[in-house]
Amino acid sequence: MHRVRLIVMPIPLLCFLLLCPADAMPHPEPTGPSTMLSPSASSHPLSCRALLPKSLPGFSHLPPLPQFLVGLALRNALEEAGCQAEVWALQLQLYQLGGVEATQTLIHHLQELQQGGHADRQVSMDALTSALQRSAWEQPGPNRVRRWLSYSDCDNEQEQSMHEVVGQLPAVGAYYNLGTALYYAFQSCSDKAKERGKDGAIDLGYDLLMAMAGLSGGPAGVVISAALRPAMKAGVQRLIQYYYGEKEVSFP
């Protein structure tokens, strides 16, 4: 003969479970790092960490200006991909490089530039790549006299896989192409930089640099230029002079 086991539950707890819907019960907020891009992005989604600048070979050896520019673009790519934990971690690093106010303004300005489209100015990819390379080589630091990537490393299988995934997400891809175009240009991977600079990415980068130097003609440029840390601003101004062939450029 089978016995029936009775489960005794305190009356207050029983009433709570019966009267409170499941949706009303508190759920813990996620505190750990994001692990995946949206499954809809690809049949083979990659981790959010693969979008971080440090996943790019040799990134940690780049001078502060390249790290800041590449980081800005990839920070926005991470946000579009829903990688909130990585966004905040990277943003704190950008604050240290460029300052809090300037970084926050640049983040929003870059978003406005991307959403608003770009003028068909046909920015010279060759000239900008040359300027970026020269700027990186002349930055002070122990690594300034050597090339950070070998020519074979300009074609990185893991990074190329990430590029193919984010290419299915237009907003993520736009920022990612900008970030990697700047990264490859600083690393003297000219062909790869030109490939990533298509579809307006280089125009977007040019607009960003002009705003950082206070030459954009709008109020955002004035705010950014005034708030940007002096060393970072000087590096951007020098870069623009390289772009225009050492011609005198009037800065505010």
Feature tags:
252 residues, mainly alpha, 11 helices, 56% helix, globular
Commentary on this structure:
This protein is mainly alpha-helical and 252 residues long. The chain has one domain. 56% of the residues lie in helices and 0% in strands. It has eleven helices and no strands. It has helices at 11-19, 64-80, 84-98, 100-116, 125-137, 157-166, 170-186, 190-196, 201-212, 219-227, 230-243. α4 (100-116) packs antiparallel against α10 (219-227) and α7 packs antiparallel against α8. The N and C termini lie far apart (94 Å).
Radius of gyration: 23 Å
What share of the residues does DSSP label as strand, in percent?
under 5%
**Mean pLDDT, all residues:** 77
Q: What is the CA–CA distance across the termini?
A: 94 Å
- Number of distinct beta strands: 0
Broad structural category? mainly alpha
**Biggest pleated sheet:** none
* Tally of distinct domains: 1
The low-confidence runs, each spanning 5 or more residues with pLDDT under 50, are 4-9, 11-31, 39-44, 142-146
Task: Please estimate the helix content.
Answer: 55-70%
**Shape, per Cα inertia axes:** globular
* Helix/strand order, N-terminal first: HHHHHHHHHHH
Q: What is the number of helical segments per DSSP (H or I, 4+ residues)?
A: 11
